Amino acid sequence: MTILQLEDIQGILLSGYGHLGFSTNYFLQFGDVAPARQWLAETLPQVTTATPWPKDANGNVQKPRTGLNLAFTRQGLEVLEVPLQGFSTEFIEGIAGPTDAAHPDKLPNRSRRLGDMGANAPFNWVLGGPNNPPVHLLVILFAATPEERENLKNRYLLEFSRAGMSLLFTEDTYVSKTSREPFGFLDGLSQPSVEGTEALKKDNVQMQTTVKAGEFILGYKNEFDLYPPMPTNPRLGSNGSYLVYRKLEQDVAGFWNYAFRQAGGEQAVAEVLAAKMVGRWRSGAPLTTTPQQDDPALGEDFDRNNNFLYADTDLPGTGCPVGSHIRRTNPRDALLPDPPASLDAVKKHRILRRGRIYGDDYPLDVVGHLLAIKAQKGLEYFAEELLQLRGLSFMAINADLKRQFEFVQQTWVNDPKFDGLYNDKDPLLANESDDRSKSNSFTIQRVPLRKELKELPRFVTTRGGGYFFVPGITALRFISGQG
Ligand code: N7H
Q1: Rounded-to-integer distance, Cα 399 and Cα 122, Å
Q2: First-to-last CA distance in the chain?
Q3: Residue in 209, 256, 428, 467 to alter for ligand 1 test, most ligand atoms within 8 A of Cβ
Q4: Taking the CA of residue 233 as centre, how many other CA atoms within 13 Å lie in the half-sphere pointing to its CB?
Q5: I need a labelling partner for 339 at 20 to 30 A (CA). Which of 195, 308, 363, 434 fits?
Q6: Ligand 1 mean position to 326 CA, how many Å?
Q7: Residue 207 has what pLDDT?
Q8: What is the pTM of this model?
Q9: Burial level of 467, CB count in 10 A (0-12/13-18/19+)?
């Protein structure tokens, strides 16, 4: 049995802090080393760990009202003179690296693999690209209410300036009250169940086996029964992990315009096409379980909404298309050669998702909302009401950036030949080409004839990114110079 050192693990590794719906990501640069280290040392006691929350006299869990987690880039660790031996190559090179000083306009191979080309290219990013100042530190604040977040922000902004740190970018994020992401789908349903955290386990994972802690936390055994590679210095690696950050802008009007156009303007058909692209209905109900129509009660039912596999009931994809977003990013038991081998292979490519939304919240019924604006303004197509930029502040935790996040993004999201397909990349994420004739297709398996959606426009654009190290508490103490 794996016993996790919860008090040494930053809380974000094991919790999405669902009750702390308001958050802010601060991207910072250190100034002088001494005040930066001192700030870290003083801030350490405030860092939220994975220690179970206390219970009151009646046995009710006393959840904290705020939270704080810290993550560093390679450049940040370098400035603080932290030894870099043993950190992974991907982390050292960075999400938009390695750059070639002789050819600064050349797109790194990593960007190609991740699909960060065309409008997604790091040259165009607002954060984390070659044209942006290097980020050193990510401070993530969490609060139960907007007022509490405001108080936290004011306090930390003052502290940053006192410690000589420069603020490069601020991103306010939140968990939507309706748990809907900007396209209107229920989100936050499927997460791997981590060994050693049985007490935290969601109800909806019965059909999925538990994943070894070393897939997500350094210092524990992974799915190969090995310890994941980690920083050589013994005080640095244990209980830490790597965090992927991606600022993913979503073209909500564009997504629904495309679905309605393909559906000849019929809402019911547009809803089916959109659900096919995602793999779930907007309510969260999985298409594999309820292929013909939505079942909102199933979507909301945490005992059932993630309790499904593909091989027995839906191998050809007539319910949940083979190339849909959720089937690519977690193919469960559907891959060759057989279901047990598939489940075993897939376990080595899981990520813990910690994404939140940035930009204005939409009402629960995003399609109804867009239809109302369209009617009110007499428009032919949907238009973003206020042209508010909105999207996913994507975060993922994994112990091995290459085998987990990068594999999912390159081999499952961006591979047009995924699982026997021909020219289909992820329909939501992978339409990076500006030339629509070279664009992605999406196949909907049907009997007797499959349907193909063609020339998918770009619904999601990468606007920023970074690879970060989330140290354990012992490591934070070491980084802050306290030994
Ligand atoms: Fe995805 N979406 O809103 O449509 N995703 N995702 N994702 N995603 C999931 O199961 C979405 C992105 C995964 O276990 C759901 O919680 C959008 C990236 C994985 O069955 C919905 C964006 C990567 C799963 C969305 C986006 C992933 C998953 C269903 C970008 C990794 C779990 C709700 C703007 C590289 C699959 C749920 C499983 C589920 C959406 C990005 C991965 C609704 C809009 C970049 C592993």
Answers
A1: 24
A2: 31
A3: 428
A4: 16
A5: 195
A6: 6
A7: 63
A8: 0.97
A9: buried
What is the residue type of 224? F
Q: What is the DSSP string of 142-209?
A: EESSHHHHHHHHHHHHHHHHHTTPEEEEEEEEE--TT-B-TTS-B-S---PPBTT-GGG--GGGTTSP
**Amino acid letter, residue 401:** L
Atom of ligand 1 nearest to the CA of 189: 16
- Phi and psi torsions of 280, nearest 5°: -140, 155
Amino acid at 171: E
Angle, alpha carbons 348-353-354 (nearest 5°): 150
Between CA 209 and CA 206 the distance in angstroms is: 7
Given this model, what pLDDT does residue 450 score?
87
**Percent helix, strand, coil in the chain (nearest 5)?**
30, 15, 50
pLDDT reported for residue 471: 98
Q: Give me 368's structure tokens.
A: 């109804």
Cα-based distances in Å from 362 to 110, 175, 184, 253, 463: 34, 12, 8, 12, 21
| Residue range 424-459, pLDDT digits in tens | 999 999 987 777 666 789 999 988 888 899 999 999
Q: How far is CA 168 from CA 126, 160, 338, 355, in A?
A: 10, 11, 49, 20
The position carrying tokens 């019911």 is 268
User: Which residue has tokens 């100042």?
Assistant: 133
Distance (Å) from CA 469 to ligand 1 centroid: 22
Question: What's the CA gap between 275 and 206, in Å, rounded?
Answer: 24
Alpha-carbon gap, residue 195 to 222, rounded angstroms:
10
Distance CA 120, CA 462 (A): 5
b/e per residue, 169-206, with b = 16+ CB within 10 A?
bebbbbbbeebbbbbbbbbbbbbbbbbbbeeeeeebbe
> If you measure from the C-alpha of residue 325 to the centroid of ligand 1, how many angstroms do you get, rounded to a whole number?
7
Of 471, 463, 330, 468, nearest in space to 395 by CA:
468
- Per residue in 383-400, pLDDT (tens digit) is 876 557 899 999 999 999
Backbone angles phi, psi at 21, to 5 degrees: -75, -10
The rounded distance, in Å, linking the Cα atoms of 49 and 69 is 8
Do the beta carbons of residue 294 and residue 288 sit within 8 Å? Answer: no
Q: Tell me: the pLDDT tens digits for 299-326?
A: 999 889 999 999 999 999 999 999 999 9
Ligand 1 pocket, CB under 6 A: 181, 183, 185, 187-190, 248, 250, 278, 280, 325-326, 329-330, 351, 353, 391-392, 394, 408-409, 413, 428-429, 460
| pLDDT score, position 436 | 67
With vertex at residue 150, the alpha carbon angle to CA 146 and CA 155, rounded to the nearest 5 degrees, is 150
